[in-house]
C-alpha cells in the first residue's frame, strides 16, 4: 500500500513539473536519442565477492528517447537490461537477469545560471517510476568440478519473471563533441520498492534492493528537425526586436526632420546667394572701375528739383543702395514719382561711363548699414542692390 502511494506521489510530482516546464522560455523543444553502457551492482546485497568460479561480468545497457521542452526541462522514456552476479565467499552465489522500463522527468542543472544557458554542455538530473522484470537464482557450489546446487529461484518458474516497482534516477554530464552528437557519462540508481529478491536472497532487515549503474554513452539531438508549418517565437527576443525597430523608426524620423530643416536652410541660402549674384552682376561695371582706379564723373540730379551736380572726386565714394537704373532721366524721375519708398534721401546719379540714370535709395559710409537698407528696400523693389561710388 505504501509503495502504491509513493509511486502515485512521484507521478503527480513529475506531471506538475512537466506542466511547469512547458511554460519556461529557454529555447525551443526538440528530441534526442541515446544509448549507454556500463556495469550493474546490487549495493545492499551480501554477495559482493566477484572472484569465484563461474563469475560473469555484471554488464548493463540502456536506450532512451528524450523530449526536451527547452534547454532546462524535459521528459524521457528509458529501457534497461543487464546481468548481475556475486558471491558471499563461502560457496553461495547468485545470478540475475534484469529488464526495466520507466519514464522520467529531467532537469538541466546548468539552467540555474539564468539566461544564456549553453545547449552544448548539460548537467542533467532525472527522476521517474517504472517496472523491472527479473529472474534471479541463488546457488551453492562445494567444488569447482561439481554442478552447483540450486538453493532459491525467483520466481520459482524458470521460464517466467518477477515484477518489481522501480523508482529510477540518475545524474548525467553531457557535452557536444560534433554538431549535435554528445558524449555522456554518469551514474543511475534503481530502487525496487518493497522487493528484496533481486539477488535471490532476503535478509531480515532487507526491505528493498538498490541497483546502481555507472555508465558512459552517446546521444544525438534532433534540433534542426522541425515541422514546416511550425513557427516558434522567443517572446523576449521578439519584444527586444520590436524595441529596436521602434528606436530605429524614431532615429529615421529625427534624421528626416534634420534633412528637411537642412533643405529649407539650403534653399534659403541658395535664394540669398542668387540675390547676391544678381546684385554683383549689376555692380560689375562700378566694381571694375573701382578696381582699375578709374574715377567716374557723376552728374547728380536732385529728384525733387531736377538739376544736376557734377562730382568727380572719388574720395567721397560711398556704399549706395540702387533701386533702379534707366536710360533716360524722364524714366528715372517717373520711377521716383510712383515708388512707395521714402524719398527723403533719394537721389538720381547719372553715369557718363554707362550712360544710365541710377536711382539711389540711400547712401552710407558703412557696408553693414547699406545691407540693412537694401533688405528694407527689397520689400518694395525685389532686385535692389548695392554699389560703391
Could you describe the 3D structure shown?
The longest helix is centred in the C-terminal third of the chain and has 58 residues. The strands form two sheets. Strands 1-3-4-5-6-8-9-10 form an eight-stranded antiparallel barrel. Strands 12-11-14-15-13-16 form a six-stranded antiparallel β-sheet. About 8% of the residues have low confidence. The protein folds into two domains: 229 residues, Porin (Beta Barrel), CATH 2.40.160.20; 106 residues, no CATH class. It is of the alpha+beta class and 389 residues long. It is built from four helices and 16 strands.
Which terms would index this structure?
single chain, about 400 residues, alpha+beta, Porin, 8-stranded antiparallel β-barrel, 6-stranded antiparallel sheet, 4 helices
Span of the ends, CA to CA: 123 Å
The ordered string of helix (H) and strand (E) elements is HEEEEEEEEEEHEEEHEEHE
The percent range for strand residues is: 35-45%
- In total, how many domains does the architecture comprise? 2
Main pleated-sheet profile: 8 strands, antiparallel, barrel
Strands side by side in the biggest sheet: 1-3-4-5-6-8-9-10
What is the helical fraction, as a range of percent? Answer: 25-40%
The rough form would be described as rod-shaped
Task: Determine Rg (CA atoms, Å).
Answer: 53 Å
The fold-level CATH name of the largest domain is: Porin
Top-tier CATH class of the largest domain: Mainly Beta
What is the tally of helical segments? Answer: 4
Low-pLDDT sequence parts: 285-314
